[in-house]
Design goal:
Chain A: This is Ferredoxin family protein. The complex is a heterodimer of chains A (about 110) and B (about 550). With about 110 residues, chain A is α+β, with helices and mostly antiparallel strands. Chain A is built from five helices and four strands. In chain A, the strands form two sheets. A two-stranded antiparallel ribbon of chain A has the order 1-4. A two-stranded antiparallel sheet of chain A has the order 2-3. The termini of chain A are far apart. Chain B has three domains: about 280 residues, FAD/NAD(P)-binding domain (3-Layer(bba) Sandwich); about 100 residues, Succinate dehydrogenase/fumarate reductase flavoprotein, catalytic domain (Flavocytochrome C3, Chain A, domain 1); about 120 residues, Up-down Bundle (Methane Monooxygenase Hydroxylase, Chain G, domain 1). Helix content of chain B is about 35%, strand content about 15%. In chain B, helix 8 crosses helix 9, helix 12 packs antiparallel against helix 14 and helix 14 runs antiparallel to helix 15. Chain B is globular. The chains are: A alpha+beta (about 110), B alpha+beta (about 550). Chains A and B meet through helix 1, helix 2, helix 4 and helix 5 of A and strand 4, helix 8 and helix 9 of B.
């Protein structure tokens, strides 16, 4: 489930509010959005992928909340790592062009 | 009455904050819906697409790596043959052929539109896989370019009618102070996906069978609802229902000893059996342990498969991790709204169905439509339904006339409610899940348990008819719970009728395939459910 929104990193673009299929986030006036309905989160990682500021972190547990240290995930680079994997954002290239799935179909 | 509980009252009184008009309304913004919208526009129709979440990130495709049944012409014979026996010979060559051809052409269009397909060291471009986020972002851009109006976070909650038949839909906008909306249209494409019963299978919590319910309320029937018991292997607690790489896994008990017969494909029921006995099951991708090139390819092919492990601190090649089977219902099953002709029409004039909302038996028979087949079906059925919906809308154009839109009385949308006696959407969802999720009812099927579950569900329907309303949830959840309840009843009614084992439908009390039952099962009705054998005969090839 979505666990962390690092307010200091947030650029208040509200893309997470927009792209979350389950409407988990809530927009606020002149402030970062909040995780308003965490239990509705389906753990699809789409918010983290779309976040341009690497301000969101989705933990792998889809059923329960877990303790996550913001400092630790920033330090280990886990926060926003899915966006890097997909190759979105400035300075990156979509990794779809390196999609190796065909190697498995050939086997 | 609190403000947030006003929606039922407003919809019941047809009090809409926003009223719009289009030739074609598409319900659902995944691959099927976006292909439908685009094709309808190309055929001259004005289109509005509504999505429960966000067109581009909603549904099972967007967060996934997706294989596509993209097969060059000279390999298609073999590709079709490999599926037929698995599906219990309920598929049809004619449909497989046209889906293969349509998919081939449309995937080539994705290439022309700039989807970055990989090119190998020999300069060959590979188009059998689509990365979900990239694919759906591209589709949204195409819709924007075509000036198709998209209403995000706007779940449809019911269809609307006029003197001629279906005439639009109504719903709410969940991010706009829950405003109510109505769209008037000459034809409708239902592309709202399958039903995974809020199990948190990847991307599937928007897929609650809403389209099945709308179609049924309009008078359409369904087909193949017995093929609705797909379960995917996931690490325990994880949402990542991507199972391809478990081909490299061995499955073990807690003490590390091998579970004989357990596997990712045929051996999945062995895993289910152990889990239902209360045993823990562990997996490890040890068969790829020493192949570092393979590991690298796996990682690039399915980034989020590894994302989950990275975040749980697990090395899946070196470590054993606990797994479970997550319910995927009809999303990876094959049942859905019955298609009556090659335009993907339903039995209701002007109403079309595409993607997982429609039956996929035509190409998959009774065995999982998951992965590449569903992707190909979404592309093809989306295209055909969009084309036909546009033609229908432009032929029978009633939008220029004054139309009075009316509604039918439907479960969960009531003008008045009595809070003390109300059955809540969350409450009902839990009761339905308790009947459809257990392996020992839905996966290992037998008359006694199916009958008893169906009785419970039928009684719940009676209760829902008089008491379901906004109490512990908003109206969206209320209607979702009604859709899931209806879906579960169609599933078990069909499962009881099919007294044999075929495709993914396994009856413990009828373990053999019965040649006389090589027919599809058509399910219809809401208060009273009818299950009938399709008169259309199918041949073994």
């Amino acid at each position: 489930m979505i666990e962390v929104l690092v307010e200091e990193r947030c650029v208040e673009c509200n893309l997470c509010v927009k792209v979350c299929p389950l409407n988990v986030f809530e927009k606020r006036e002149n402030q970062p959005p909040v995780i308003a309905r965490q239990s509705d989160c389906q753990t699809c990682y789409m918010c983290e992928l779309y976040c341009p500021a690497k301000a969101l972190y989705v933990a792998a547990d889809a059923e329960d909340t877990v303790d996550v240290s913001a400092d630790e995930i920033i330090e280990t680079g886990l926060i926003g790592s899915y966006r890097k994997d997909i190759g979105w954002g400035k300075g990156y290239k979509s990794t779809a062009s390196q999609d190796t799935a065909y190697k498995f179909y050939l086997k | 009455m609190s403000l947030e509980f006003d929606h039922s009252y407003k919809l019941a009184n047809q009090n809409y904050d926003v009223s719009l008009k289009a030739d074609v309304l598409v319900i659902g913004g995944g691959p099927a819906g976006t292909w439908a919208a685009l094709t309808a526009t190309e055929n001259g129709a004005s289109v509005i697409l509504v999505d429960k979440g966000y067109c581009g990130s909603s549904g099972a495709t967007a967060p996934s790596g997706n294989g596509v049944w993209y097969i060059p012409e000279d390999q298609r014979g073999e590709a079709m043959k490999s599926r037929e026996a698995l599906g219990g010979y309920l598929s049809e060559r004619k449909w497989m052929e046209r889906v293969l051809q349509r998919t081939f052409e449309n995937v080539n269009r994705l290439d022309e539109w700039g989807y970055p397909f990989p090119i190998d060291e020999h300069g060959v471009k590979h188009k059998r896989s689509l990365q979900g986020p990239e694919y759906m972002r591209l589709m949204r851009r195409k819709l924007n370019k075509a000036k198709i109006k998209i209403l995000d976070h706007s779940p449809a909650l019911e269809l609307l009618y006029d003197g001629y038949g279906i005439a639009g839909a109504a719903g709410v906008q969940t991010q706009e102070n829950n405003q109510t909306w109505a769209v008037q249209a000459n034809s409708i494409v239902i592309a709202s996906g399958g039903c995974a019963f809020l199990s948190k299978a990847l991307g599937c919590n928007v897929l609650t069978g809403d389209g099945y319910l709308f179609a049924s309320e309009a008078g359409a029937d369904l087909s193949g609802m017995e093929f609705s018991n797909a379960y995917a292997i996931t690490p325990k607690y994880s949402s990542i229902t991507k199972t391809a790489f478990y081909e490299w896994a061995s499955f073990t008990y807690e003490d590390g000893s091998i579970i004989e017969g357990a596997g990712s494909k045929r051996g999945r029921s062995v895993i289910a059996k152990k889990l239902s006995e209360g045993q823990k099951v562990f997996a490890q991708l040890d068969k790829a342990q020493n192949d570092h090139d393979l590991q690298k390819y796996m990682r690039i092919a399915q980034p989020n498969f590894f994302l989950q492990f990275d975040r749980m601190g697990i090395n899946p090649f070196e470590d054993r991790f606990e797994v479970t089977l997550r319910f995927e219902g009809t999303v990876r099953g094959t049942g859905g709204i019955r298609i009556t002709d090659e335009t993907c029409a339903t039995s209701v004039p002007g109403l079309f169905a595409a993607g997982d909302a429609a039956t996929r038996e035509l190409i998959c028979g009774g065995f999982t439509g998951g992965g590449s087949y569903n992707a190909a079906w979404a592309i093809s059925s989306g295209y055909w339904s969009g084309e036909a919906a546009a033609k229908y809308a432009l032929t029978y154009n009633r939008n220029n006339h004054d139309r009075t839109l009316t509604r039918k009385q439907v479960v969960g949308i009531n003008e008045h409610h009595t809070p003390g006696e109300t059955l809540g959407g969350n409450e009902l969802t839990k009761l339905v899940q308790a009947e459809v999720t257990p392996y020992n009812v839905n996966l290992f099927r037998a008359e006694e348990k199916l009958t008893s579950s169906l009785l419970t569900l039928n009684n719940l329907w009676k209760e829902a008819k008089s008491h379901l309303g906004e109490k512990d949830s908003d109206l969206v959840r209320v209607r979702e719970s009604a859709a899931m309840l209806a879906t579960s009843r169609w599933m078990y009614s069909a499962a009881l009728q099919r007294t044999e084992t075929r495709g993914m439908h396994k009856r413990l009390d009828f373990p053999k395939t019965d040649d006389h039952q090589q027919r599809r099962l058509i399910t219809s009705g809401l208060d009273e459910i009818q299950v009938n054998w399709d008169s259309h005969s199918l041949v073994n090839i």
